Each structure stands twice: as structure tokens, then as C-alpha cells.
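User: Okay, second chain of the day. Same drill as before: sequence in, C-alpha cells out.
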Amino acid sequence: MRPITLIDTLVALYRLGRTVCIEGPPGGGKTTIGKRVADIVGVPLIMQHTATMLVEDFGIPYLDADGVVVNYKMPHWYPYKGKPGTENGGILLFDDRNQASADVQKVLANICEEKTLHGVPMADGWQVVSTGNRKQDRAGSNRVLTHLRGRETVIELETHLDDWSKWALDHGVDPVVVAFLRYRPNLLHDFDPQQDQNPTPRTWVAGVSALLGNIPAEAEYECFKGAVGEGAAAEFLGFLKVYRKLPNPDAILLNPDKAKVPDDPITLYALAGALASRASTTNFDNLCRYLDRLPPEFSVLTVTMAVTRDADLTTTNAFTTWATKHHEVLF
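Assistant: Same drill. C-alpha cells below.
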């Protein structure tokens, strides 16, 4: 399921109180989506990393004052009924659930089914959500117990370029990374368990975008290779060299009718990213005039990236005119 549909589905399942597990290859944004749903619904999120949890992390037994009855000290994270701050519901997210041991999975199964922990009920309005990698990803996932599987809805997350591009531009990912992945979409999420490093949405953001402009140029290849792997790093660096040799985007915006129009796709993709990052309400008319000289698909790509970064651009007369011309392929 693509991310935008998954988010809407998870919001609906939260309101129904259904237990959910989001599965997919590493680095696809499963945990981020869980956090996003909590923000949309407006409830707190408690996250536990189950790969490192022991059964003892779910409560410590102790004898009552008479030394007869065994009770449990509840863990600090458990949203039990009556606990301050739990009154309006929330999401209890167990991250990397598929790496949990069989004993931990047994405890999780009871929480999912009965919404209790050692007989202590969970607060009303709380939903259990888990995330996990698939066994074929060889990311340390264990076999999930059948009775745990039977107590949840399992949805597989599909990496989707358009959804990721919008998220990336909304969250400050460098436009050159977005432009490159529009040019080479297969490299957005090319996970191979046989490789030590792989291109994934997570590694492009944290291992490439966050480093651009913050490390020496001579160290870029080694650093990018250490995040997304050798092949993807080499291709991105080649794209980056083209991007850095582009005509000054500001000069194009000053003289949109006479500025040179590239004719090779890699330069056009790079230019789309550069122009989108410069777009503003004051220069958008000139930008659209230049885009009218580009192949339509690159005009659409540039405007899509620009308005995602700055929604105020859609209020300009230039955008209205441009959108009328391109209404059949708009976004």
C-alpha cells in the first residue's frame, strides 16, 4: 500500500481501535508513518523498540504485603487506565516487532487481543501498532507467532516516488536529491540483503541530503557510498556534478525568454531541482515563462516540486495560467 493511502487507512483503523502491523523492507518510513498518524489524530505516541526488549521490560513481579499474592510493577511506558495523560487515547507503537523474541511476542499478543498487561487494562482509546521488516529482507526478523498474527491487520508498505517526493520537500530534503531520484526512481528503495549498504528513503535523507554542503567535496563519494552503496553513490555524484555546472538559475529567472534550454534529460532533471528551489511569488511569472520552453514533463516536475515546497505559489496569476495550460497532466 502506498504511503498516502496507508496513512488514511491507519487513521480509520485508529478510530476503530484495530491492532495493526506495518511491514516492509528496511528504511521505507514505517516508523515515520506511525508518528505521522499520531500527529494527524492529535494523540500521544509511545514507542518501544522491541528488538532490545526482555520479558522483564513488561513488568516486574512482587509479593503483596502478606507474601501470598504476586502482583506486577507496571513499566513506565505502559498507558494503563487511570494513568495521567492517557485519558484522550493514543498509539502504543512497538517498533521492529518482527525482531522480538518469541517470549516477548507472547506478551505482545495478549496486549493486542485483550488490551491488558498482567491483568492491568490499557486506557480507553489506545491502539497498538507494530512495525517490522519481512523475513526475506534478512534484517534480523524472527518468525512471528501465528496467534500474534491472528490478532492484527498486517499491511505491507510500498515505497512510492510521488508520495516520498512530497514528504521530502515538505521536510527540507535537498531538492537535488529529489531531482536525482525523479531521474533514477529505481534507486529510491533498492534494498538487497546481500549488500552492506543500500539506497533507501532513510539513507537518502540521513546519509546523503543531510551531508550535502556540510562535508568536504573530496569526501562526498566515500560518505555517500557508506550510506547508499557504491553504485547509487557513483550515479548521484555524477548527477551532482551536472547540477553544479548548470547555468545560474538566477540568471535564467532574470532572462527567461533567452536563457539556454538544455536538451539532455539528466541536465533537465537537475535544472528542475535547481529552479524549484529558487521559485518564489516574486519570480514565478518568469519561471513559468521559461518552463513554457521546456518539454512538458519537466515543466510539470519543476512546478510540482516548487509548489510542494511553497504552497503560496498556487495563489499567483502565473500559476493559474500555467495550470490551465497543463490541467491534463497536473500533479
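The chain has two domains: 3-156, 161-325.

User: Thanks, on to the next one.
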